[in-house]
Amino acid sequence: MLKNITNTVDYINSKFNIQAKIGIVLGSGLNGLAKDITVQKTLLYKDIPNFPVSTVKGHEGKFLIGNIHQVEVVAMQGRFHYYEGYDMKEITFPVRVMKALGINTLILSNASGGINPNYTVGDIVFITDHINFFPEHPLRGKNEQSLGDRFPDMNEVYSNELIALAEQIALENNIKYQKGVYVGTQGPTFETPAEYRMFHKLGGDCVGMSTVPEAIVAHHSGMRCVAFSVITDLGEINGCGTIEKVSHEKVLKAANETEPKLCQLIKELVLHINTK
Ligand code: HPA
Fold this sequence. Notes:
This protein is an alpha/beta fold. The protein has a single domain, classed as Nucleoside phosphorylase domain (Rossmann fold, 3-Layer(aba) Sandwich). Helices cover 31% and strands 24% of the residues. The chain contains 6 helices and 9 strands. The chain has helices at residues 2-15, 88-101, 160-172, 193-202, 212-220, 248-272, and strands at 22-26, 38-44, 62-68, 71-77, 105-114, 124-132, 177-184, 206-208, 224-234. α1 (2-15) crosses α2 (88-101), α2 packs across α5 (212-220) and α3 (160-172) packs across α6 (248-272). The longest helix is centred in the C-terminal third of the chain and has 25 residues, at 248-272. The chain starts with a helix and ends with a helix. The mean pLDDT is 91. The site of hypoxanthine has 12 residues, from β5, β8 and β9. Residues 111-113, 190-191, 207-209, 232-233, 246, 251 line the site of hypoxanthine (HPA).
């Protein structure tokens, strides 16, 4: 893995001398966030050595290097999901690469189903913690100590400091937000009503099919992480009524509608993050 990371980093650095400290992963229906980036260089995943290639509609496979105003960033337009058939090492490989490129702060975004009864479609959730329901762990196997500890502490995977900064920015810009626990599942099925009730009982506030693997690896590698989830559909949790049918199209539509607010939030966050 170390050799692969080095190969990939060498390739990327040969195309652009990266100084960025902030990386962004653009989730389902949130690709428009890329509009706020003045792109200096686009690398297609298919041209980057060792990068998996994205297969899902709505997830374009591009590695963007550019800036938001004066702040240099790299962004993944399209991520890899377990349900596509990749293993966890493949899904999280780009996070290892970002770390090796010098990124120390990772901003993740995704779409998810609302479990918390106070949530509505279009809400932006600041993820405070997660419950890992994926059947495979990204850190399983021989641990490479130079990448991180064998048994990582998981107390603050999502940086309290960055959540507090996001809250301040949201308040200043009149952006409604929620805070909550994200349940990560393998998909590709959405939840049954019974599964929604179970996740609710277990302490989940929203549920989706991504983010947890990347956040674990970012944390393992010592990066600061912050993650935003757009609620695109609601689960039935109180036994009253049926859930509205959910589809990938509906998820993309709802995420697209919230995109401008999330863009504004992430843009301001990037401009105010202290990357030291
Ligand atoms: N469940 C899982 N993943 C999702 C959902 C959901 O309801 N909505 C968007 N991604």
